[in-house]
Amino acid sequence: MSTLTRDEVGSETLLRLYRQMFLIRRFEEEAARSYAQGKIGGFLHLYIGQEAVAVGVNALMQPDDYFVTTYRDHGVALARGMTSRACMAELYGKVTGCSKGMGGSMHMFDREHNFLGGHGIVGAHVALAAGAAWASKYRGDGRVTVCFFGEGATNIGGFHEGVSLAALWKLPIVFVCENNEYSMGTPTERTLPQRDVSKKGEAYDIPGLRFRGQDVIEVMAQMREPIARARRGEGPTMVEVQTYRYRGHSMSDPGKYRTAEEVEERKKTDPVRIGHDHALASGATEQALAAIDASVEAEVADALAFADESAMPDEALLHSLVLAPNTEGDHPPPLGSYPAERHAGASVDADKVAVRHA
Amino acid sequence: MREIRYREAVREALAEELARDPRVFVMGEEVGYYNGAYKVTEGLLARFGPQRVVDAPIAEAGFAGIGVGAAMVGLRPVIEFMTWNFSAVAFDQILNNAAKLYQMSGGQYKVPIVFRGPNGAARQVAAQHSHSMDPFYVNIPGLYVIAPATPRDAKGLLKTAIRDDNPVVFLEGETLYAVKGEVPDVDTDECIPLGQARIAREGTDVTIVAWGRPLHTALDAAQKLAEQGISCEVVDPRTLRPLDHATIVESVKKTNRCVVVHEHWEHGGTGAQIVDVVQREAFDWLDAPVLRVHNQDVPMPYAVNLENAVLPTVERVVAAVERVTYKR
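The joint structure predicted for all components is written out below.
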C-alpha cells in the first residue's frame, strides 16, 4: 500500500488543501441556506462529507488534465479552482455564473480549468470522459482525465461501456467511484450485487483499488499510482473511494432511510476536521488556520453578495446558445500535428483487411 | 461531371476531410478492417491507419459518448452507426450530451461531431431494422439533421457537416448506396450549405416535398404524372433541421397544391412539420388540403408484399397528386 506522510505533503500544501475543503463546506452550507430562502431553484445536491475526495485527487492533477463528474459537482468545481463567485452565481441562475445561468447546480463547466462538467444523466458521462481521454491519446498530449461517479452509476450501461472502451484502448483515465453508500435513498445492499466496486474493473482487465476517503492525505497516497499509471499510458484503474454524504441526496430528501446515529458516527471522521488537524500537526499555527477560516468566510459572503447582485441572463441568450458559430472547422491544424497520423497505413495488418466480395 | 455511386460519394467526403484536417477521425463498428458493413469506408483504414479509422466494439452508447467527449476537447469525430436503428441505444448521448453541452456550458464547449449511417427500410429486414429515425432527431434543438438523397448532396453536405462546429445527424440510406449520380470531380471541394432545400424537378401544378429514398419515389411519380399532363415540382429539403421554409413555401405559392412524401410514421416528424409550415405560411394560396404519403402506422413486417404495402410507392404518390388536383 502506498503511504504518504504529513511531512512529505508539507505544511503549506496541507494549509491549502484544508482551505479548499473548508471552502467547499462553507460554500455549500450557505448554498443550502439560500435554497431554503428560495434563491436557488431546481435540484441542489450537496457534497458535504466527501470533500477530501475531490480536493485530494485535484492536488495530484495538472492544470491541463480533464475533470468530469456527476450532478453532485460543486465540490469538484471548487477544488478545481473555479471561483466561488462563478459557482454561486450559477446556483442563483445569474448570467455571471460559470455556465451563464444555463446549467445550474448540476451543470457547472469551466473551460479554463478543464472542467468538462457536472452531468445529470447517471453513467452517461463515463463514456464522455473516456472520449476526452481518447482525444489525449490521439493527440499525444500527456493529459490524464479523471472521472467521478457514484456507486449507483455502476449498475447502468453507460458506465460499463465507457469503462470497457477505456480499458480496450488503454486510455489515460482514472475512474473514481465515490461510494457514499446510498444511491439516492437506497443502500448498497439493495443495489449492488457486488458491493466491492473496485472489483468491477476485473471484468475489463484493469486494476482495482479500494480505500476510505475521509483523510485527504490518504486520498493522495492512494491516488498517486492510478494517476501515474494513466500518465504512463498503461490505461485506466477502477478506484472505489469509500465516503459518506452528511446531507440528503438533494435538498428535498430528509434522509429518513438512515438513522441520526449513523450520520453522527460518520461525522467522527470528518474530512474537514481531519484536514484541520493535519495542518496543525504539520506546524501551521492556530493563527494561520484562523486566518484561513476568516478568508473563507469572507469569500463565501462575497460570493453570496455577488450572486445576489448579478443580473439574470437576457432572453437573447436563449437562442444564441443553441448552435455554436462556426469558427474552427475552417482552420484545421497542420497535417502531421498528431501521433495518430503517423500511424497511417503502415500499422495496418494487411492480412486482416477484408477483401471485397466480387 | 462524372457519375459515381452514393456510397462512393460518402467515402470521398470522408477521405477528403480526413486528409484535410488531422482532428477528423472515423469510428464505428466494422469501419476499418472489415472495410465497412456497407463498404462505405472501404480503403480508408489502409490510407489513414487504425488510429483514425477506428473499429469499435458493439457499444453504440459507449462510442457515441467517446465521440462527444473527444469533440468537446477539440477533435472532430465522425461516428458511424451501422444503421440508425442502433442509434436508439445511444439516443441519450445525442439528446442529452451532443445537443445540449454547448448551451448547458454557457457556450464554453462546442461539440463538432457527425453521427452518420443508413436510415430507413433496407428491404425485408423487419421491424427492428427498418426505422426512419428522423422524427426522433428533428425534434431536438442543438442538432442539425441532414438526409441527402443524391450522391452529390451526400458528398457536399457531409463535407460541410464535418466542418461545422455543431453536432450533425447525417441520415444516409442502405437502398441509396448503389444510386448513381453526377458529382463534381475529386478534390473540387464542393461544400453544400446546410439548411438549403433544392428543387429536384421544376413544375407548375403540384409541389411534392420528399427527402432521402422517397425523393426517388417522388421523382418517378412526377415522371408518370407528366405523362398524364400533370406538372409536378419536386422539392428536396435535404436538411430537415433547420428546415428551409422559404423554398417550400415559394413553390407552393406557385403550384397552390402540396403533397409530402416520407418514410417515417404519420404522427409528428418532418412530414407533419412541413404541413404545418405550408398551412401557416401559404394558407391563402392553397387550392386543396395538403396530403401526405407515408409509411403505414404499423411496425415494419417482413413479408415482401406487406412491406411494399407499408412503404410509400409511386402509385400512392400518384393517387395523392390526383386527389389534390381533383382528378380522383
